[in-house]
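Expect chain and fold; see below:
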Amino acid sequence: MKRSFALLCTLVLLSCATPKTKEQSLVDRAVDAMGGAERLASIRSVSAKGTSKQWEPEQSDMAGGEITSFELIPRIGLDFVLEHFETMRDVLSQKHPWYVLIELSSQARSGLRAVMEELLADGLERGLIEDATIADSLEQGKMFWRIRELFGEVQRHEGGSIKHDISVPVAAVPAFISEASAAVTKLIPGSRPLPFGHLGDGNIHYNVAQPVGADKADFLKRWDEVNAVVFDVVAKHGGSISAEHGIGVIKRDLLPKVKDPVAFELMRTLKRTLDPKGILNPGKVL
């Protein structure tokens, strides 16, 4: 069966062609399709490995500085949304294992759609893209975003979900997802990884849904075990166990284990200096 990668946007939905090299994952293809990781949302200078087809700098500059959202969406998440929300519909005629929601923004009054169309045309010509659709209205754009926004709610309909809010370097996202999913499904056969989130900055919500028919309570009892194998993969790739949602209370006891000892002691010293009575956000982080 031919594998493909679909890219979902407020302005465009496209699917990337099957990787030609063993090392290059489908996520790599999505990054390449937007001109390479080093141009993706003007973030840190990294590039996808094992690229068999890359655009020249002039192509990757086409959207440089205008990419304001680059959200990873797996097919399993879209299937969950379609199953539990009757008002939602599939956005492409064929299924694809991965999608990315992209939003371009500009201060100019016009020309943004032309930029996207040119970008897509170039990607189609080079075999990086297999399918695409552009939102023709604000309502259609909202529908694209609604799919992504429902991921938090829809997981409750599938039983227990063990959640992770992690970050790794953008170029390491494909390897992280592959290795974490292998580790999780080995630990709990039948478990269903649901990695989604902010691919543009390497922040992935790596959630794991319980196996179909499993007991929710028994599954959630293994929260710490699943955390451990996922965080091991995060550490391997030089990432962080906490991204946009912070340390809070849940990860407080993990912080000393993953933080540099000198940096951690400096945090404690600053806390004692600024909050000697411990009345500011008590019990959180430290």
Remarks:
- Residues 173-187 form the longest helix (15 residues).
- Confidence is low (pLDDT under 50) at residues 1-14, 16-26, 33-61.
- The radius of gyration is 20 Å.
